Amino acid sequence: MDFMTRTETVSPYKHILIMTAVEAEREAVLRGVAKAEIEQGQEGKAKFDVQLCGVGPISAAAEAAAYLAVNPQYDLVISAGIGGGFPGLADIGSIAIADSIIAADLGAETGDGFSSVDELGFGSSRIPVEPALPERLMNAITAAGWPACCGPILTLSTVTGSQTTADELSRRIPGAVAEAMEGYGAAFAAHRLGIPVMEIRAISNAVGPRDRESWRIGDALQALERASYFLAEVL
Ligand SMILES: O=C(O)c1cccc(C(=O)CC[C@H]2O[C@@H](n3cnc4c(=O)[nH]cnc43)[C@H](O)[C@@H]2O)c1
Predict the structure, then answer these.
(1) Pocket of ligand 1 (CB under 6 A)
(2) Of 4, 69, 134, 165, which is most buried with the most CB atoms under 10 A?
(3) Angle at which helices 57-70 and 183-192 pack, to 10 degrees?
(4) Total structural domains in the chain?
């Protein structure tokens, strides 16, 4: 894969943990990072550690917390993988980068609709991400001619499967660009330990009516590999 130009940066991040749900995502991230490290002459420096966290926010939180408990050296934790994109904001094959990570179904259904944990007074459904990094990564990707965007990325335990739910999520979280199932879980564990977080999603499908046949997983994994290459350049 030809990724084109290189961005020169001095990085404050020495040990970065990337968590993916499944092995195919892990391998895509490893390929992208390895390509950048070879180009930079940084092979074997073990700056990036890519680990599995399983599918869903509970598994992601438990795996991230368990891993960080015995490996406390990380100064950045990134949830990465494929995800659903909100049409018109994050198209299939593009990269969505979180400017905040939101547990979109953490709350209560009330007579008036959905109330978030924030509204219920039980905590925060939003985890802030490391400032400036999302835009830097987006700029590196788009400068090379590939599509990428920044915005809130939602974490849900249930993949959205109807237009009604997609519309409701867009209404409740204006500007949401993508959804996936692990970001908030991994981010919660890291944030709890004071470690900065990011989330990156390569878009495999549109958020909306369920049509599993239309998921473009191969394209998304290629985009994830590419994004990981630029991530390793930016960081
Ligand atoms: O079947 C495969 O080859 C394959 C390869 C890589 C990943 C998968 C997955 O099914 C991973 C599940 C993973 O995907 C995220 N995801 C993707 N689209 C959505 C969505 O529209 N809404 C929520 N999550 C989505 C999610 O994070 C899952 O962990 C299969």
Answers:
(1) 21-22, 24-25, 55, 81-84, 156, 159-160, 179-182, 204-205, 207, 217
(2) 134
(3) 30
(4) 1
